[in-house]
Design goal:
337 residues, Chemotaxis protein chec, 5-stranded parallel β-sheet, Rossmann fold, elongated
Length: 337
């Protein structure tokens, strides 16, 4: 990078360089943004890049950027999911701006409500980008040109508010955090975790598939009884426990065919369910969900069937591990009791 520092701008030594993380799944766009930022007006910057939201979250923890410039639509963890994860995991000081082709008003509303500093549309004007970056770095805007602003969100209609109030909140609100928790547990990225909407008849039966399942019961300080329930079908239990244990594909297939993970696979699948506890929705500020116990069961636990019908919020996920095909798909569910 060949930007220059001079009087009135950032110092050139590495300790005082401001840090920018560019997040885009196109290397060409990464290069275009980088070139736009290499200017005397902004001074010398430390710049790193990431290909998607998941990689960006890893780099934020290590690189500690002052500003993240992110695309909106990316494979895996999207830009808005990345921003939500940053805020939920304590990175409140990191400024985030979006550079995207999406011109939908919903994107602008979501960006603003989640604390984004600005949203620019591709193709962007270099000077507009520099002004926005200057704002994100705590600088006065460079030269002339309006700073891109996000519109004030339109208040929801009474009908929309009523519909939202009637819907059960998801037990796990952030898909990005669930993906990050699974990534941290497995130590690998070769998986897909997505929300899954099951047919009503399956949602009321007890779980997505018949057969053994790992049942996790969660409690919360100050509350009696079960606060939430987590469920892994046999395939998900073998995948999550087996990949974390370093089991071979043949070992995981054998466990699935026998209807029972080995002791190490079961231990690590249970450990993952423990790691998911902080992600379970708090229904009051004092709630602190924590894992009480897990058990592998082929029979429904008492009251589980009624809980599936009367739950106070449910999240279903589909896990895919392409490298483990045709045995690389499993289901996860979490329910508020």
């Amino acid at each position: 990078m060949t930007a220059h520092a001079h009087t009135g701008h950032l110092e050139s030594n590495s300790a005082s360089k401001r840090k920018v993380l560019i997040v885009d799944d196109s290397r060409a766009i990464q290069a275009i943004i980088r070139r736009a930022l290499e200017c005397e007006e902004l001074g010398e910057l430390q710049i790193q890049t990431a290909r998607d939201g998941a990689e960006a979250l890893d780099k934020v923890a290590a690189f500690r950027p002052d500003l993240v410039l992110s695309d909106w639509h990316m494979p895996g963890v999207s830009g808005i999911e990345m921003l939500q994860t940053l805020r939920q995991t304590g990175f409140h000081e990191v400024a985030v701006g979006f550079v995207t082709t999406d011109r939908a008003s919903d994107c602008q509303t979501q960006a603003r409500s989640n604390g984004a500093l600005f949203l620019l549309h591709k193709p962007f004007d270099d000077q507009a980008l520099r002004s926005a970056v200057a704002l994100g770095l705590g600088r006065s805007a460079v030269q002339a040109g309006p700073t891109p602003a996000l519109p004030t969100p339109t208040p929801p209609t009474p009908a929309a508010t009523a519909a939202t109030a009637q819907a059960d909140p998801p037990a796990i609100e952030s898909l990005a955090l669930a993906q990050q928790t699974l990534f941290a547990h497995l130590g690998m990225r070769g998986f897909e975790l997505a929300r899954h909407q099951q047919p009503v008849e399956l949602r009321q039966q007890g779980f997505v598939l018949p057969g053994p399942q790992l049942v996790a019961l969660y409690g919360s300080v100050g509350r009696k009884g079960v606060y939430a329930v987590g469920l892994l079908d046999l395939a998900a239990c073998c995948l999550i426990g087996g990949l974390a244990a370093g089991s071979s594909a043949k070992e995981m297939q054998a466990a699935r065919e026998q209807g029972k993970p080995n002791a190490r696979q079961l231990e690590l699948a249970s450990h993952f369910m423990r790691q998911m506890a902080p992600l379970i929705k708090k229904r009051s500020p004092s709630d602190a969900p924590s894992l009480s116990t897990t058990r592998l069961s082929s029979q429904p636990l008492d009251k589980l069937a009624s809980l599936l019908e009367t739950h106070k919020g449910r999240s279903d996920f589909l896990l895919r591990v392409p490298a483990q095909a045709p045995y690389g798909e499993g289901r996860l569910s979490f329910l508020l009791a």
